[in-house]
Amino acid sequence: MTTLGLIGSGHIGSALARRAVDAGYDVVLSNSRGPETLAGLVAELGPKARAATPAEAAEAGDLVVVTVPLKAYRDVPVEPLRGKVVIDTNNYYPQRDGQIAELDDESTTVSELLQAHLPESRVVKAFNNIPAAAIVTMARPAGDPDRSVLAIAGDDDEAKRTATGFLDEVGFDAHDVGPLAEGWRYQRDTEAYGVFAVPGRPVTEEQLRTALAAAVRYRDM
Fold it and tell me: Per CATH, is 3-220 categorized as 3.40.50.12780?
C-alpha cells in the first residue's frame, strides 16, 4: 500500500492523513466542497499530499478511508472502489443524519449499510470510537507499552489484515471483533465507544475486550 485515498477530510480524515504521511504514504484528500477548499491542509501536509474529487481519491487510493457524515454514505463513489479495501469510520447520529429505519430497528449496522452500497468493495469498520485528536497524540510505535488498541470488524479476512497493517503503520494495534454485523459492539453510546474518554490514557486489549463484552443493544438500554 503506497497511496491512501480519503473520502471526507474533516477531523478524522485530517488526522489520518497526518499519520499516513508520517508513515510514508502518499495521500489524496477529498471532500464534498471541492479540492480548492483543502489547499491549506494540503500545504500543511507537504508534497506527499494532494486534493482531488471523491471519485479521484477513490480511484487513486490503494487503500481508501470513508469518513463522511453517515447521511451522505450513498454519495460515496461505487465504481472506483470496486475490489478495494475501504475503512469505514462512520457513526449514526440521528440528530445529524436523520432517522434511518434499519439502524433504528437494529436490523443492520452502520458499516453493513456502506458494504451494501459498495457490494464489490471490502469494508472494514475502524477508527469510529477514537477522538480525532487522539489519532495523532496517542499513536505509538510497535512494542511501546503505551500503545493503544482499536477495534476492527469486517467480513473479509484479507481486508482485515490490510486494515491491521495500516493501523500498525499509523501507531495502533488492532483487535478483530469479527464480521461487520458485530460492529454494533463499538457503535455510538456503547462502553467500547467510550474507551478513549480519558485523554491520554492508553487503551489496552483487556480493557477493549471487557468493553466489547459489555455491549448492550439500543433497544435494551
Answer: no
Angle between helical axes of 11-22 and 157-170 (0-180°, round to 10): 80
What phi and psi, each to the nearest 5 degrees, are found at residue 195? -65, -20
Transcribe the chain into DSSP letters: --EEEEE--SHHHHHHHHHHHHTT-EEEEE-TT-GGGGHHHHHHH-TTEEE--HHHHHHH-SEEEE-S-GGGGGGS-SGGGTT-EEEE-----HHHH---HHHHTTSS-HHHHHHHHSTTSEEEE-SSSS-HHHHHHS---TT-TT--EEEEEES-HHHHHHHHHHHHHHT-EEEEEESGGGGGGGSTTSTGGGTT-STT----HHHHHHHHHT---GGG-
Q: Has residue 75 got a pLDDT over 70?
A: yes
C-alpha cell at 20: 499516513
* Measured CA angle at 130 (ends 125, 132), to 5 deg: 110
The reported pTM is 0.97
**Nearest residue to 154 via CA among 107, 208, 102, 112:** 112
CB count in 10 Å sphere of residue 53: 16
Sheet with 49-51, strands from edge to edge, namely 49-51, 26-30, 3-7, 63-66, 85-88, 122-125, 149-154, 173-178
Contact between 126 and 162 (Cβ < 8 Å): no
* pLDDT band at residue 208 under the 50/70/90 scheme: very high
